[in-house]
Amino acid sequence: MEILSINAENALASLASSIGRDPESWEGWHCLNFEMPKETDGQGNCLNWVKNVIESYLKDANGRVFFCNDRQIYIICKGVACKNLGQVAQLICDLLHEDSSIEIQYKIYDLGKDGPKFASMFFERCNVLDFNAKEYADILDKSHEHAIFSLVGNNTEAVTRHFVNAPRVLLVEDDPITRFMVRKAIKNECVLATAPEGNKVFSLYASYQPDIVFLDINLPDLNGYDVLEWIMDNDPGACVVMFSSNSDMDNIVSSMDYGAKGFVSKPFSKEKLLHYIHNHTG
Question: What sections of the chain are H helices per DSSP?
Answer without folding.
Answer: 8-21, 43-57, 82-100, 111-128, 134-142, 176-186, 199-208, 224-234, 249-257, 270-280
